[in-house]
Amino acid sequence: MNRKLPIGVLLSGGGTNLQAIIDAIEQGRLDAEIRTVVSNRENAYGLTRARNHDIPATVIDHRGHPSREAYDRVVVEHLKGQGVELVVLAGFMRLLSPFFIRSFPDRIMNIHPALSPSFAGLHGQKQAFEYGVRFSGCTVHFVTEGLDEGPIIIQAVVPVLPEDTEETLAQRILVQEHRIYPRAIQLYSEGRLVIEGRKVRVTGEESDASAGSALVNPHIP
Ligand code: GRF
Q1: Which residue's CA lies nearest to atom 14 of ligand 1?
Q2: pLDDT (tens digit per residue) in 21-42
Q3: Does the CB atom of residue 14 touch ligand 1 within 6 A?
């Protein structure tokens, strides 16, 4: 059996991405072990998801710390104490300080609900919907000190349909988030992600002939 990558998942909310990671581990698609789930909010449902699977879950409230870095120092110490090698941000609604990012260089991943570099920041789905793009999607990337702009690991594209609302688009994107996040972590676990400047090379990546055909929306009859 492959070595299991020790990961720590940070979240603030419902934790459907956490659930997708748990499911992938339980189904043998992801060689990782969740050492800890940390939430800055005590009522985050993601904590319950973790506990339902006997995964240690901890609340580290951001309130009451004198600075962003002071809070991050507590979180980093906790993650290191659990032997975490890869930090997985899964709906963690806080910016990380440079101290945090330097504590885990090239070892923090995030998922953004838009096709980076478009629509960075909060509510990527809503921004894309309101802009009127014909395609949106989601992006897993390494975290650097710029907002949602680190090297891209994997993206999934979804169409925006005429009958869509912000919610139906967000839901279509979320389905793809749940596919690509566990896959990105698995590629990392296999040691296949090589960061080369802005780019991530995936070693052993096979060329996909179907990727050569363009997506057009609305379609051309
Ligand atoms: C997702 O939309 C993700 O892209 C964003 O935060 C949301 C987290 O959702 N970063 P969940 O808590 O995993 O359900």
Answers
A1: 16
A2: 999 999 999 999 999 999 999 9
A3: yes
DSSP assignment string, 126-164: HHHHHHT-SEEEEEEEE--SSTT-SPEEEEEEEEPPTT-
Token pair, residue 91, equals 């709906």
Q: Which amino acid is at 5?
A: L
Structure tokens that stand for 81 in this block: 């104490």
Instruction: Give the distance (Å) from ligand 1 centre to CA of residue 78.
Output: 22
The residues carrying an active-site annotation are 112
Residues 6+ apart with CB under 8 A from 197: 151
Q: Is the Cβ–Cβ distance between 141 and 112 less than 8 Å?
A: yes
SS3 track for 5-51: EEEEEEECCCCHHHHHHHHHHHCCCCCEEEEEEEECCCCCHHHHHHH
Cα–ligand 1 centroid distance for 178 (angstroms) = 10
CA–CA distance, 86 with 84 (Å, rounded to integer): 6
First to last CA, the chain: 49
Q: What is the pLDDT of residues 147-189, one digit of tens each?
A: 888 999 999 999 999 999 999 999 999 999 999 999 999 999 9
CA distances from 58 to 21, 86, 136 (A): 18, 17, 34
Nearest-angstrom CA–CA distance, 60 and 47: 12
